[in-house]
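Field reference: sequence -> structure
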Amino acid sequence: MGIEQIDKRGKELISSQKIIESLLTSLKDYIDIIVGDALYFNQTDFSIALKYNKHLFVKSRETSLDIIKETEQEYKMELLIPNSDKNRFIKSDDMERGCSFTVFKKTPYFYKDIPQPLSCYRIEENYFKTQQKEIFYCITTAQNISLIEAREIAKKRWQIENNVFRLGNQSFYTKRKRFKNDTTNKNYLILIYLFLSILWFLYQISIELKLIKPEFANFKFFCIYHFRSICFNPAENRINTS
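Structure field:
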């Protein structure tokens, strides 16, 4: 896990590039794809990943990007063609998440100095109960990701964001608590997110092996029930990190 301190607001892109370089230098044999939010990645990040023969996979809702504009145009044309290519377009139901979905893939897209073409996945989800519709896009240099895999990668990335990083902030106040010593602060964050990542891994294994009761099929409830710790009840047990 890499943690790079941001000197000030507006330097997130530089920090993301430092993290990618650090991870790929030390852990490149264990990494195939780097997944993230398009807000913190740009052309340089794609080039850095490709330099190590790895791929970047970013999720975006920014409809002003040229690659997304062209993807939307091709998607509308695809809807007019009966019996379309299933490697480019699928429509299915996801009963577990309570929605129907479509995935459309645009490829290739050549962008400036990026040495490999980009693929853009358009993912639309329509939820049965709320009638809510969500549309997002996934952009990557990896060419062998299936339509189903692209959606799952994006969903898994959001689960990590929601159940690890957000839970870390809610339970350990990671955005508000700071040590005076930078090294101590980094080590503190590494321990927190390593701990939550291990719990998330155990939670996923428990679900796959059907070891978890339906009433605890929620990551936070799983943590509270199986690991009755002060860190998951911050309202009653404040943690002093000053």
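Note: The first strand starts at residue 33 and ends at 37.
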